[in-house]
Amino acid sequence: MKKNPDVVIIGGGLAGLTCGIHLSKMGQQVILIEKNEFPKHKVCGEYVSNEIKPYLDWLDLKIQDLNPATITQLEFSIPNKKTIHCNLPLGGFGLSRYTLDYHLYKKAIENGCEIIHDTVEDINFEDDLFTITTSELKKITTRITIGAFGKRSNFDQKLQRKFILKKAPWLAVKSHYKGKFPNNLVGLYNFEGGYCGVSKVENNIINICYLVNFESFKKHKNIDDFQANIIYKNPHLKEFFSNSTPLFDKPLTISQISFEEKTTIENHIIMVGDSAGLIQPLCGNGMAMAIHSAKIASELIVDFYTKKTISRKELEKKYIQSWDYNFKKRLKTGRFLASLLQNKKKSAVIMWLLIQFPFLLPQIIKRTHGKSIILN
After folding, report:
1. Structural domain count of the chain
2. Minimal CB count within 10 Å: which of 40, 234, 240, 279?
3. Domain residues for 290?
4. 3-class SS at 39?
């Protein structure tokens, strides 16, 4: 690997690793900086929409070798036990981040990416070049830097991004279980102050991940107390927790989750995945969006290096336009739906409407998902 790579990627989650695989496949020299070792569990719904399946095939990722769960159905309920079902328009698959991220990591290395386990301390942009300094005092210069920091990062604070300056009200809790749950189903279960997703991943493991308003959560002593007093009011969730065995010593948690709008370019850094925008988990599309955003950024970066007529200004403009075109409406819809589910009366009205007009639910799903990616 040459000392001055074409691209430096900061963050080794779904979006960062996908960028690394794509760019190295196209002959770009890539360094990816990630502070954590692989494999590693992450707080995530672990459902991936099939809209990005053609792109994963193009990257030669062979996802089927990981034995993902095939998911085709959605079940939605509120605490009064009313439940509706529908087919997922495109369907998807369940795969843990532990398995998927490690698979991407190995593919990135196979493709020739250099992966450095370190923490970025500073990024300076001057004279059309980035100088990146790590905690181990490595200095790397490059023309293109990709920000794949995730939901929130210390580096967001250093960049003084607007969303990080606001207090974020959300807490997420995730764990794996052994128990009974349909192989092809993703369940979305509303409770007071939040909602919970349940679905299978590889090896017949059940992933459960819920999002709750922290003000509601902190009224209780701990996670067990919260689940017993609030989550169990939804009978589907009570039945699941009562008859399942946890596989983690304790659940994973992440706080200060923000769904505020984010900038997609910050100090000329190209933001991808959750660093560019975080969709409400109830939409079940965050993983696919992260991977899709990596595709958009990578294609434009390849054009920047191979088609000398594309300037940095044009690259950034096209990325912002493409991000907005593909994701802005989805994010807006997700925020709107989440606000409705937070209100007990409104969520009851929504359920009544969906029961009376069952064709509405697939239409709502389509508004938070994209069409199957068409490769050029």
Report:
1. 1
2. 40
3. 7-47+96-166+258-367
4. coil
